[in-house]
């Protein structure tokens, strides 16, 4: 069950769908990081989320076969909303959707498989988000 305070933050939050298709890549190297949506480097790998145009900038070690869409969520109370991401993840799971979640300083990104975009949008609307 979603606490009422979390429900209120969800009602006060909005989202939009990015028009691009995205790809998840394990890169050996990156030419221009600013060309990509997300670059994450740790002691094991470099993961890049990019568009078709950005693939040419990478030396690719591996690539996920799926095409992904991006739902950008503008949280009304970033950092201070217990259960916010869990509410999204639980609703998507209940709908049978496989998602990837990423949090930045002021936004949350929900990546969904391209063929499940409409269903994911409907889930966000159903739990109370406003579409921009």
TrEMBL record:
Start and end residues of each CASTOR ACT domain: 66-124
Pfam families: ACT_7 (PF13840)
Species whose genome carries this gene: Rheinheimera riviphila
Name used for this protein in its record: ACT domain-containing protein
Source organism phylogeny: Bacteria, Pseudomonadati, Pseudomonadota, Gammaproteobacteria, Chromatiales
InterPro entries (alphabetical): ACT-like_dom_sf, CASTOR_ACT_dom
Domain of life according to the entry: Bacteria
Gene3D superfamilies assigned: VC0802-like (3.30.2130.10)
């Amino acid at each position: 069950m979603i606490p009422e305070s979390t429900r209120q933050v969800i009602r006060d939050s909005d989202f939009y769908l990015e028009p691009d298709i995205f790809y998840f890549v394990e890169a050996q190297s990156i030419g221009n990081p600013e060309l990509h949506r997300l670059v994450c480097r740790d002691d094991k790998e470099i993961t890049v989320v990019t568009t078709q145009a950005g693939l040419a900038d990478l030396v690719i070690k591996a690539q996920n076969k799926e095409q992904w869409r991006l739902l950008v969520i503008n949280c009304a109370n970033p950092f201070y909303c217990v259960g916010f991401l869990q509410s999204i993840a639980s609703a998507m799971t209940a709908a049978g959707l496989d998602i990837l979640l990423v949090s930045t300083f002021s936004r949350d990104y929900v990546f969904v498989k391209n063929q499940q975009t409409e269903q994911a949008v409907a889930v966000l609307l159903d739990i109370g988000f406003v579409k921009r």
